[in-house]
Design goal:
The chain contains 13 helices and no strands. The protein has 304 residues and is mainly α.
């Protein structure tokens, strides 16, 4: 399927490195006076503006009513709900822990694909995903690293985000036609998210002083929007190229990147087990190969 077989690996690696930084930025954003819902709304509006400009430059329609269902699903499971959870959880968890939980995405994606019979059992992929999950245990069990008494509950909450991202992966891979441009899809989803969030902000009276817009918190949420837009674009292309199970391995790169960003920006300390888990994650990633054209055709011909 690929002229360059390394392209899917490049896409998920680049997306993971950029995405990993957003967890540290989320912690910075929540240190200001803006509440979680306002932060989610600002991120969606900025992302909407970025993708609208990109669509205009590329001469792509940013929104088409016939794709409204796609926009609604992606806005809900990929933007509004997970972003709200992350902004609420950030004050209670470290950047490393936030990023670590993302590594459960491949497990949930594989389970969904297997249950829905979109993905056949394949030894190497199952071993790779299992190694990734084992890497999470190496990070969490020996080292803990939770920062408050209610951190365990917030850890469970952010695991919900992983489930939502898994649903998004499967939806994009199986129910969104290949001819729909990724940029249009992301622009439409952010338009829907913004239209939903803005009235909620206005009705509930969320707001900040003008001085906040020049603060570190404001700069952080703007950066989150830019980084997320870039990562999402790369990630969605990887889903179309290699399938949702392979693309979900991006979560391992996000984890490694998130842990490293936390160390660089906040001097978060981690034990020997962190670096063992990094090695295990990379080994797991190497065992998961992209879905080829023949595999995809064979699966479609079999009715799965």
């Amino acid at each position: 399927m690929f002229r360059n077989k390394g392209l899917p690996y490049f896409l998920i690696t680049a997306a993971g490195l950029v995405w990993g930084a957003t967890f540290s930025l989320t912690i910075v954003a929540t240190r200001g006076e803006a509440g979680p819902m306002l932060l989610v709304t600002i991120q969606s509006i900025v992302s909407c503006a970025l993708f609208s400009i990109l669509c205009m430059v590329s001469r792509i329609r940013p929104f088409r009513r016939k794709y409204l269902r796609h926009y609604l699903v992606l806005a809900a499971v990929g933007i509004v709900v997970p972003n709200s959870i992350y902004f609420n959880a950030a004050p209670h968890l470290s950047a490393g822990i936030l990023s670590i939980t993302v590594s459960t995405v491949p497990m949930f994606t594989y389970i969904l694909m297997w249950v829905m019979k979109y993905e056949a059992a394949k030894g190497s992929r199952m071993v790779g995903i299992s190694l990734g999950m084992f890497a999470i245990l190496l990070l969490i069990v020996p080292d803990q690293g939770l920062e408050s008494t209610d951190a365990s509950l917030w850890t469970i909450a952010v695991l919900v985000c992983a489930v939502l991202y898994s649903i998004e992966n499967v939806y994009i891979g199986e129910w969104v036609d290949d001819h729909i441009d990724v940029r249009e899809l992301l622009c439409g989803a952010n338009i829907v998210a913004s239209v939903f969030l803005i009235p909620m902000i206005l009705v509930n009276g969320h707001g900040v002083a003008m001085s906040w817009w020049q603060s570190e918190s404001a700069m952080a949420v703007m950066a989150i929007a830019l980084f997320s837009a870039t990562a999402y674009t790369l990630f969605f292309y990887s889903i179309k190229l290699a399938g949702p199970v392979f693309a979900s391995q991006c979560a391992y790169i996000v984890t490694v990147s998130g842990v490293l960003w936390g160390i660089v920006l906040f001097s978060e300390s981690h034990s020997f087990w962190v670096w063992v888990s990094v090695a295990v994650m990379l080994l797991g990633l190497s065992l998961v190969s992209p879905i080829t054209t023949q595999e995809k055709t064979s699966r479609n011909d079999s009715g799965q």
